[in-house]
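Input sequence (168 aa), recorded before submission:
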Amino acid sequence: MTQCLSMILGVIALACSLPTALAAEVGGVAPDCALSAIGGTQNYNLKQFRGKVLYVDFWSSWCGPCAQSFPFLNELHRDLKSQGLQIIGINLDEADEDAKAFLEQHPASFHIVSDAAQQCAKDFGVKAMPSSYLVDRKGIIRYVHLGFRPDEAKEFRGLAEQLLAEKP
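Predicted structure, token format:
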């Protein structure tokens, strides 16, 4: 009886630990997600951007802080693209129309892709909106940030600049 109980508790502990073990963490390799252009047929994967510093930003049309983050992301893209920063905004809306309406109000100058099935969000272990990940040129997640507050933008920009300054 005790042996059975121990085995059951072991299986439960393993099952409960799986989602965390599969989530992307600082120091781990960024998942290679299959993504598509919103309303288009072009497909992307994160691996194709290896060699660049990636700012991966998960967002949704209903997210107020996401709307606040887009001017910062546009500025970051404008200022650091030539140094090797690639910003990828991954939309998690189920309907492309919601994302398109958001983008009409908050245009993006950086890559916007869709993850309607939310598999990439699951692979990254997204816990909040927006969730941002800075990935170095080798594909290693170096920083994770949940949410967006304008007063934190300068600090996150500094982290991106540090990664860009590292030798490939």
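Checked by second reader. Residues 2-165 form a domain with the Glutaredoxin fold (CATH 3.40.30.10).
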